[in-house]
Amino acid sequence: MLNPQRSLSEVPKMSAANQVERAVMEEEFNWLLKEEVHSVLKQLQDILKEASRRFSMPTTGLDGQVKQENFILGSTTMDQVKGVLTLQGEALAQADINLKVSKSSQVLHFQFRDDKQWKLQQIQDARNHVNQALQLLSSRDESYRFKTGAEVNKLMDAVMLQLARARNRLTTPASMTLPELATSGLMKMFSPPMPGDVMVNFYINLSKLCLAVYQLHVLQPNTTKASELNNHRFEVSHVHKVECVVPWLNDTLVFFTISLQLCQQLKDKISVFSSLWNYRPF
């Protein structure tokens, strides 16, 4: 309720104060669009370029090939499976595996054929998403003038989507059914060939390179609740999982987290101004 004793001259003074406040806020917002947004975009580019380099770090040699790294598999299943994996960027260049067969205690030895490498699709996909995020960022160089907050948010949403997809590819193990494994070509990588009752799968889980070994038991044709493979019914008798930590995969996950935080912080700053000025589209 208005105070009847209040001077009418006070009303324009409040309005003028509001106008000054809005002018100050608009100046801050223009500075945000012109300066700080590009500063954040530069930080994001630097971080994601470093992440992209982690996926394919070249050797110091003149040929520029991606270096090979050897990792010893650690087992939690009574040393049923031992081995060394050789990682070269997004590809397994070699896998040297010793498997102790449960029934006979016989040790089977397998390794990749010399002419074979196995692409790790999770790493390849994650790298592709990082590169797509970099392309989005490079499309708005320092000379570009952002006009609205909505424009910044749209760019941040697109970048965050690619980063979330990249992270999800590394944090969600690639699951394949045994029939899919049988037809994937992975079983043809080894010398000597693996027996028909053994299957393997390689996958990424966070910063770890993992190997799963499945030992199968062939069942009678009329057995219920069994899977079918190559016209034979079978069940999985043993599963052995071993893994090794890949330090640069951990680095990339940290880079993804930092980048996503930077994007969200910029969106939060934009939202402060958009909530203050309902009359101006952001």
UniProtKB/TrEMBL annotation:
InterPro entries: RAVE2/Rogdi
GO CC list: RAVE complex; synaptic vesicle
Annotated localization: Cytoplasmic vesicle, Secretory vesicle, Synaptic vesicle
Highest taxon in the source lineage: Eukaryota
Pfam families registered for this protein in UniProt: Rogdi_lz
Principal location listed in the UniProt entry: cytoplasm
Family as reported in the entry's similarity comment: Belongs to the rogdi family.
Protein name listed in UniProt: Protein rogdi homolog
Species, as recorded: Gadus morhua (Atlantic cod)
